[in-house]
Amino acid sequence: MGRPEDTDTTAHEAVFGVADSVVLLFDEAGTVVGRPYAAERLLGYPAADLGGRHVASLLAGDEAGRLPEILATSKRDGGWSGVLLARHRDGRTVAVDVTVLPLPGEAGPARWLVVAVGAAPSRQWTMGPALLERMVTEMPIGLCFVDTELRCVWSNTALEHFGGGTVEQRRGKRLAEIQPGMNADIVESKMRQVLTTGEPVVAYEHVGRTRSHPDRDHAHAMSFVRLDDDNGRALGVCYAVVDITDRYRARLRLALMARASERIGRSLDVMGTAQDLADVAVPALADFVAVDLLDAVLRGAEPSPGPTAAATSLRLVRGGAQNVRPGGVKEVLEPGEPSGYRPSSPQMDSLAHGRSWRASHLDAATRAAAIPISVAEAAAAAEAAGASDPVPHTAIVVPILARGVTLGVATFLRTRRDEPFDEDDLRLAEELVARAAVCLDNARRYAREQAAALVLQRSLLPHGVPAQEAVDAASFYRPADELSGLGGDWFDVIPLSGARVALVVGEVLGHGIEAAATMGQLRTAVRTLADLDLAPEELLAHLDDLVVQVTRDGNLTDLGGAPNPAGVGASCLYAVYDPVSLRCDLASAGHLAPAVRAPDGTVTFPELPPGPSLGIGGLPFEAVELPLAEGSVLAFYTDGLIAAPGAGKDGLRRVLESRDLPLDELCRSIVDELAPSRPYTDDAALLLVRTRGLAAGQVAVWDLPADPAVVARARVMAARQLAAWGLEELAFTTELVVSELVTNAIRHASGPIRLRLILERTLICEVFDASSTSPHLRHARTTDEGGRGLFLISQFTRRWGTRYTAEGKIIWAEQPLELDEAALEAAAPALGPNSGTDLDLDSVQDL
Length: 847
Known about the structure:
Layout: H1 9-16, E1 22-27, E2 32-37, H2 39-43, H3 47-50, H4 67-77, E3 80-87, E4 93-102, E5 110-117, H5 129-138, E6 142-147, E7 152-155, H6 167-170, H7 175-178, H8 184-197, E8 201-210, E9 213-228, E10 234-243, H9 245-263, H10 270-281, E11 288-294, H11 295-298, E12 316-323, E13 338-339, H12 346-353, E14 357-359, H13 364-370, H14 373-384, E15 394-402, E16 405-414, H15 423-460, E17 471-478, E18 487-495, E19 501-511, H16 512-530, H17 536-554, E20 571-578, E21 583-589, E22 595-597, E23 603-604, E24 623-627, E25 633-637, H18 648-658, H19 663-674, E26 684-691, E27 699-704, H20 710-725, H21 731-748, E28 753-759, E29 762-769, H22 789-796, E30 799-804, E31 809-816, H23 821-827
Helix pairs in contact: 9-10, 9-15, 10-15, 15-16, 16-17, 18-19, 20-21, 21-22, 22-23
């Protein structure tokens, strides 16, 4: 390693242009000859130590293996340049930039001249004019230089793809002259900002139209940098432009789909979901959108699967519509009204074949077929009035398909925006409609199921208060799930014999259709047991036995297949109010006692043994007797009414004491105040009743001895009472009933006999005796001398029956207050040879 004796440092630097380099001479065998220049500074070896060393000893690792190829390349190409790893004297590896040159033969035995540089590359990158020009002219990014007056000085070839001409055509022009559709004022404001502040603006996004695409908005990312001279004085601005339209549109599509996910299907309402689709698509995708649904969808019927081949006979109904121009032409159709399309329209074709349709440009004929008839009529009317709107110039029609059924069709039109719909717009419209179609089908299915469930619920709950004189009643029911309207709470008002009335309130655990079905079973059972005139505690015992039996033997499951214990855990309160005695008997199966507001306005909660919930079995129920003043208000409720924070019994007492309202208004106001929060945690039911009493003149009572002779006197007393009430037309049937009931009591019972007539909405005849034996209706043979009495009573009265008391039983019969001639004629043949309207009443006692 070394340098020729006749070569000094200055000369070497002049030859190679590098001041800090190592020059080595190698002979043909690769051995260093001569004294190397600057070797110690680069490799750590003194010049004297390098002489005679082989080149392989100076290289690190496997670099020596590259020497044959390097030398061959140098001979062939006249030289070789590259990076080799050398071994420093201290053992570390040094990367050196090496140039190997073959020397001509006359230079002596040395064959190779090597120049090495370690700290920095020997070949420096210099941004010369040629390199800069090639870079700015061939790169795909549009570049432009403008002066301080924002006039074009120079631009590259890539900028020509955006329209506006070549650099010669641009030079000296402002951006507004080059690209009229690019909102030049906004872009130039950015240039002035950079000129003023010197701060660059990077990745500014601009949306507009260029001369190369004048019919569609394009998005561009623009960066602005101020150009200064050596003294820091602004020369102008360089701006770069990149077309990011695809990315911009993808972002818009994602934003639109995100908005659709958020807004479409927020409620399980078919019409609301259709309107959501129209609202989301305008103005992001179209200027006008109409969503038309098959009439069967709105009616809750099941549409035919697949495309509708007979589309021309289908009835479409406007589900929703939106117009981007609030002041422009609007449709005359309201949601729910029939919408019309011509048989040859794209809408009918889409329904028939299940495929979308797109028209980039609508000619007159296609426009007439594609536009809804109502829109065309509205546009014609507006044009006649001198207020015409831009006509649609492009359209998309997409069938609404979900889960294999056709639900309707959606029409997208553009009027204000002059961009035609393209394939990307069609795919976006189809994706929007597909998303909305699933929501529409969910809403349709829900509406169908809810309608069925509500029919079930309405059939299970009472439809108003039955005709009776014992109480005035009002009720309100608020289910926890207001979407389905189903719950497990129930209440009832059941007329009983003797002008009495049963008041019932109950609650089933859970919500939804399962709870409603169980509630219906319990309510039906209560009404059936109430018809037997059982005491409250006996009725609840029978109801509890029924629940236990059904749970044990039924093995019921809910709709999901999970075990359903029917009414286990349900609660029920059963009360019987007698308007004659002004007494209320109550028994509870795990239910809350009612609130009682006296006529003076004070509210109390009577002590009532709660009793076990239904289905527990084995425990008795207790009843209490509660005397009530006429005009008292009883509030029967479920625990959902008082479960809200701040409610409770004290809240119910406060509202009852503070408000003197009609019963219906009071009922609604109590529920609104005590259970107003949503979602409700539990069903809330409230039954309010105001007690009434029968006047003394409406009840007649006679105590009779057990003597057959008293029958005739009983008939006479009954007839006189009817005359006093002005019911002479009922004298015949009433005397017949009295004769039969009193005679049966004398013949088959024991103890005292009591006859009572009650004038209410019906005429009630009751006979009390001390026997617990119940009479049975018989069909007597022609030769039988008796056994026809109860048959005659069943024919002449509306209903009859038996109820038991602690002292015996009461046989009762009710007659309507109008004379039932049809029943009289039907019963006449059973009276025997002396039957007819001229029947001798004295003979009735012998029946």
